[in-house]
Amino acid sequence: MNNSEEIKKIVKEKYSQIALQDKTTNESSCCGASCCSSEVYTIMSDDYSKLNGYNPDADLGLGCGLPTQFAGIKKGNVVVDLGSGAGNDCFVARAETGESGKVIGIDMTEAMIDRARINAEKLGFHNVEFLLGEIEKIPMTSNSANVVVSNCVLNLVPDKKKAFSEIYRILKPGGHFSISDIVLNGSLPPKILQTAALYAGCVAGAIQKEEYIALVRESGFENIMVQKEKVIMLPEDILANYLTADEIKQYNASGVGIYSITVYAEKNSAECCDKEHCCK
Question: CA–CA separation, 202 vs 182, rounded Å?
C-alpha cells in the first residue's frame, strides 16, 4: 500500500462498485468497503435528510460529516465539491448558492460522474456540473472558486500536501473551505494500515490530526478551525476480519482514537491573481 498509483487504483475500483449500489447496501459496509457489520450505520455518516437540497438518489451513505452545513455558502457563490460521488453535497450546496451560483463536482471515478450527471439531469439543474479529475490535479483554473467542500475524501488521497495545495490554488483570495475527514490520534495496528479494504473504507488512509492541520497551515491557509469533531468506533466484528482476539484487546486498550473532523480555513483575501490584477 506504499505506491500512490496502486492506492488510487484500489480506491477507484472500490468506488466504481459503490456507484452501482444503493445507499442501503453501502451502509452495510465500512464507508462502502467490504467489511460487514450491523453497527456500521453509526460509524461514519451523518443524517443529511433535513438539509435543504437533499436528494435521496444522490446519498450513498459514504460521508463522515456535513461540510456543506458549516461552509457558509452564499447566493451566487461558485462552490466546488471534491470527491463528489453521486452529487449529494453538490445538490445541498446548490440549495445555498441558488440559481445565480454554480456548483462543480470533481471525482476520479467515471461511474460516480455518470451517476451524478443522471441525478442532476433528473433534477433539472443547469448550474451543477461534474468533472472527471483527481484532487491532486484539479481540472479547474486558479482563483475560480468561492468555497470548496469535501466529505470523507481527502483521507483517500495519497499526496495530501499536493491536494491542499490544489485547493488553495483554485480558491479565490478570501475564499474558504469546509472539509469533513477522518483523522487519528495514535497509531493504528499495521494489519489495518496494510488492508486495502480499510483504506478504501476511509480508515487506513487517515493521518494524525496534528499532521492534518499542519498540512493545511503549510499550504498557506489562515483562520483554521475545527468546526465539529466526533469519535469513530470500529465495531469488533469489523476488527475481527483483520486482527486476532488478543490484538483487538490490545487495540481497544491502546487509546488510539479515530475521529471525524470538519475543518474550516481561508485563503488570504489580499493575495493577487497575478502581478498586475487582484481577484474579486
Answer: 7
Residue 279 resides in a domain: no
Domain extent at residue 96: 4-263
In the structure, what pLDDT confidence band is assigned to residue 39 with cuts at 50, 70 and 90?
Answer: very low
Which three three-digit cell numbers place residue 107? 471525482
Whether 232 is covered by a domain: the verdict is yes
What is this structure's pTM? 0.84
CATH number of the domain at 19, please.
3.40.50.150
pLDDT digits (tens, 9 = 90+) for 197-254: 554 455 657 889 999 999 999 999 999 999 999 988 777 777 887 788 998 888 888 8
Is 280 contained in some domain? Answer: no
Buried b (16+ CB within 10 A) or exposed e, 71-107: bebeeebbbbbbbbbbbbbbbbbbebbeeebbbbbbb
In a domain, 256, yes or no: yes
Q: Position of cell 499532521?
A: 211
Per-residue pLDDT reduced to its tens digit, 140-199: 999 999 999 999 889 888 899 999 999 999 999 999 999 999 898 888 777 776 664 554
Q: Which of 207, 144, 221, 240 is nearest to 177 (CA)?
A: 221
Go through 115-134 and write b for each residue having 16 or more CB atoms within 10 A of its CB, e for each that does not.
bbbebbeebebeebbbeebb
Domains in the chain, number? 1
Alpha-carbon distance of 263 to 266, in angstroms, equals 10
